[in-house]
Specification:
Two copies of one chain form a homodimer.
Chain A lengths: L2 H8 L3 H8 L7 H14 L5 H8 L4 E6 L6 H15 L3 E6 L4 H13 L4 E5 L5 H8 L5 E4 L8 E4 L1 E2 H14 L5 E4 L6 H13 L11 E3 L5 H12 L7 E4 L2 H13 L9 E6 L12 E4 L2 H17 L11 E2 L1 E3 L13
Parallel strand pairs in A: 1-2, 1-3, 3-4, 4-5, 6-12, 7-8, 7-9, 9-10, 10-11
Antiparallel strand pairs in A: 11-13
Chain B binds a DNA duplex (16 and 16 nucleotides) through helix 2 and helix 4.
Keywords (chains A, B): DNA-binding, Repressor, Transcription, Transcription regulation
InterPro entries (chains A, B): HTH_LacI, LacI/GalR-like_sensor, Lambda_DNA-bd_dom_sf, Peripla_BP_I
GO molecular function (chains A, B): DNA-binding transcription factor activity; transcription cis-regulatory region binding
DNA sequence: GTGAAAGCGCTAACAG
DNA sequence: CTGTTAGCGCTTTCAC
């Protein structure tokens, strides 16, 4: 079943089989044909382990996400895996579930498997863990976080563009009192989203009523529970901006429980534009973060890091966000303001 | 950085390092201590490739799913991965996206990586592909499908229990005219769900009005589009049973577009009980399929297949489904019947 | 209890 | 263009 068996059947050396299978040009067509037929006869499949051992290349890429249960990630994973497989790589997935301990074992697993690069699409990674990777000259790529450096890619997301559009959209609809439901406090991406929101609502026209900032967790639960706090505010906001779509969906549900509904009683804006955002009731107005671009940049940055020739951070243009208007936002009712 | 370096530093042979790291008893505590300190000093991490090559064990399990975008699967993947990692395995994920061609390349990738077992949580697998796996004595486990055999596990799901409860639930609420929205026609699990539904609605009390069977795709889109066909039926059903929760969510949205809503205008029942089912508007009455049980059985079956001693099919008790009543079903309005 | 040595299956010089 | 050979890093007999 191994390469020797194929060589024996084809009446050639193992080197020739290896060359044929790997598409090295210098094999005569006649011999190549014999080798291929032997390959098919035996059902030969090269042993990746052996290959990796001798070549020093595992052809595995690590992908670390925080919450595989958040629909944003599967959509991202799918894209990343697609690029990877196209280039002959397999993906080793790690879901940390926001837990630093799991993050540590995940990094360990990746090192053991000799991954050739790691895309970290999650919360802050401990410096010591990062050094384990960089110390082994493994290219890394982060979103929003991480120090730049050789073999370290940093994907920038222009949150502000989308957030500004959303805030203006709400302003034009007559909203003057906003709320914001954030994500996990230690998640840099969540901080940046909130910061962008705070900045966009620092313009003079918003000075009359400062926005209400509420805590969330980027899960359905967090949005659901935030509704209580939102409704009991001294001055009830007329619109809420959520740090991700899952949170917004939780809000929608929370409103329903109170006998309220968007956008009549409260305008709701999400963030991410997961596929499902089009199917909520009402469909969600949200800021789109293009997942496929994210996946592509992460993959390309890793590949660049492997080349060694170019700095992987370079050539990365920030990912642009943009507002998608659907049905969860509306002109504020005079009665409600 | 390799085992030799550790051996040199600890002043022992590589064999002793290997034994220490692998916890073989026959290493004296004194020597073991020296080895471990050398291991930490160097930051030694065993090379899985080399290990796999010599031991013939890759410690990788394959997991094939059809649609990673369907929230049911991430929840399943998470469970499966957890069991695997606990036992020292990594998971190679394959998402076929319902495409037989992708399935073929996925199986190939798994063979190349020398996976020790494959869990197939998706549509029918071509016999030739399956033989590639079984011919290499790789344990397999299927849900709903696949011929039983040595090293082949078959997880059975008792769909009928949950479906019967759901149908009875609807009957008691006064519904007499039902509809069913199915899944992909070539997906065995979808067929079984539909069959269970048909069987449960073959009792005498349902003879007056045969259910309306509609096609779907287990996606939001399918449910959404089915609403049109459902509403234009000569006799409009008062309740619809969906082959999965995503379909049901699509229906909810489809109704909303028509200015209708569940359960007032149509009772809706889903299938799977994904986490999100609790957060739809209204929350979804659905048949729960315990994901963690599924993940556990899949994993255990694979482990049993590796033992060789026991037939992996044995010891598997069918997975039970049960009705979870939430807000998307209600007593049929006299006016609507 | 510990070490020496033989490979696991493959690729990549280096000869021919 | 093809064959011979030396390892990749590790585990595992087999001696000691």
């Amino acid at each position: 079943m191994g390469i020797r068996e194929v060589a024996r059947r084809a009446g050639v050396s193992v080197a020739t089989v290896s060359r044929t299978v790997n598409g090295v040009r210098s094999v005569s067509p006649a011999i190549a044909a014999k080798v291929w037929s032997a390959v098919h006869a035996v059902g030969y499949v090269p042993n990746t382990q052996a290959r990796a051992l001798v070549s020093g290349r595992s052809r595995i890429l690590g992908l670390i996400v925080s919450d595989i249960t958040n629909p944003f990630y599967p959509e991202l994973i799918q894209g990343f895996e697609q690029f990877a497989v196209q280039a002959g790589y397999d993906v080793l997935l790690g879901a940390t579930n926001y837990d630093p301990a799991i993050m540590a074992t995940t990094v360990r697993r990746m090192i053991e498997r000799k991954v050739e690069g790691v895309a970290v699409m999650t919360s802050e990674i401990e410096p010591s863990l990062m050094e384990q990777l960089t110390g082994r000259r493994i290219p890394l790529v982060f979103v929003d976080i991480g120090p730049p450096g050789l073999r370290i890619g940093n994907i920038q997301v222009n949150y502000e563009a989308g957030v500004r559009q959303a805030v203006q959209h709400l302003y034009r609809l007559g909203h003057r009192r906003l709320a914001f439901i954030g994500g996990p406090s230690d998640l840099k991406s969540a901080q940046l989203r909130r910061d962008a929101f705070v900045r966009c609502t620092s313009a003079p026209e918003w000075m009359a009523a400062r926005p209400l900032l509420l805590a969330g967790d980027h899960k359905l639960e967090g949005g659901f529970e935030a509704v209580q706090r939102l409704l009991s505010a001294p001055v009830r906001p007329t619109a809420v901006f959520c740090s991700n779509d899952l949170t917004a969906m939780g809000v929608l549900r929370g409103l329903d429980v109170e006998g309220l509904r968007a956008p009549r009683d409260l305008s709701v804006v999400g963030f991410d534009d997961i596929h499902m955002a089009e199917y909520t009731i009402p469909p969600l107005t949200t800021v789109r973060l293009p997942r496929l671009d994210l996946a592509r940049q992460a993959f390309q940055s890793l590949m660049a890091g492997l080349e060694e020739t170019s700095a992987p951070g370079s050539g990365l243009t920030p990912i642009e966000t943009s507002l998608i208007v659907r049905g969860s936002t509306a002109r504020v009712e005079p009665a409600a303001s």
